[in-house]
Structures are given as C-alpha cells and as structure tokens.
Amino acid sequence: MAGERFQSLGARGAHPQRVLWASTGTKNPAYNDVKYLEALIGPETVNTVPLETLSAYRDHGDPDLRLELGVEDAGRCLRRLSEVGIDLDAVTQQLEDEAVTKFVKPFDSLMKTLQQKRIAAQG
To answer: Is residue 23 part of a domain?
Structure first.
C-alpha cells in the first residue's frame, strides 16, 4: 500500500483492502487459547474471532503487533515444506474447501429461515 501505484489510486479515492482472518479460535486444547488471535494482530486487518476466544483474550491476552514479525523465517519455512512431504497448494485448497462448506451451511439455513418468515408474513 506504500507503493507508488497504490498512492496514485489512493489519491483518487481508493481504500486498501483489509485482510480478513476467520475462525481464529484455537481448536487444539494443548495450545494456548489465544495462540492464533495474538499471532494475527496487525494493521489493516479484521478478525471474526469466536466469542470464547475473545473472552479469553480479554482475560489474559497480550496486545502487540505480531503479524509482521518473523516474516523472513516464515518464508524459509514455507519454502521447505515440500522437503518434508507437505504440498502447500493441496493443503491450502483443502482449507479453502472446508471453509466454504462451513459458511455455506449457515448461509443456507439463514436463507431458509428468512423465506419461511417472509411466507408467514404474507399469509
């Protein structure tokens, strides 16, 4: 966003797109209950943190900008995943597919409820 191209767009009213973090609750009880929430704190981000995780963060979270820490080390780790048999593209696709499924079901349920209410209101 600091580059010349975006500065030109910004001068014409463009706004930066913020990163959306979703489902950042800690699923593994062996991990710190605010592990992912704290790791993803950074500027220009939005987090749809689960209520349980938010409550834990309010209780014992440590607010600090962490998102941009260790970027070079993370890049090295990502480049080495294939060496240990992890296909990052396949894992990414699996996570995307699972996320879409988790959002489709509640959306369909909401739409069904709204349709039922609309029919009831007309009838």
So the answer is: yes
Range of the domain at 60: 1-69
Please answer whether residues 57 and 24 qualify as being in contact, where contact means their C-beta atoms are separated by less than 8 angstroms.
no
Apex 85 CA angle, 103 and 23, nearest 5: 20
Residue 47 lies in a domain: yes
CA–CA distance, 14 with 11 (Å, rounded to integer): 7
Domain count, the chain: 1
User: Residue 56 has which token pair?
Assistant: 């834990």
The DSSP call for residue 45 is E
Residues of the chain with pLDDT > 90, as a percent, come to: 76
Q: Is residue 62 part of a domain?
A: yes
Examine residue 55 and state whether it is found in any structural domain, yes or no. Answer: yes
Rounded to an integer, the average pLDDT of 35-54 is 92
72-90 tens-digit pLDDT: 999 999 999 999 999 999 9
∠ CA 62-79-77, rounded to 5°: 30
- The fraction of the chain above a pLDDT of 70, given in percent, is 100
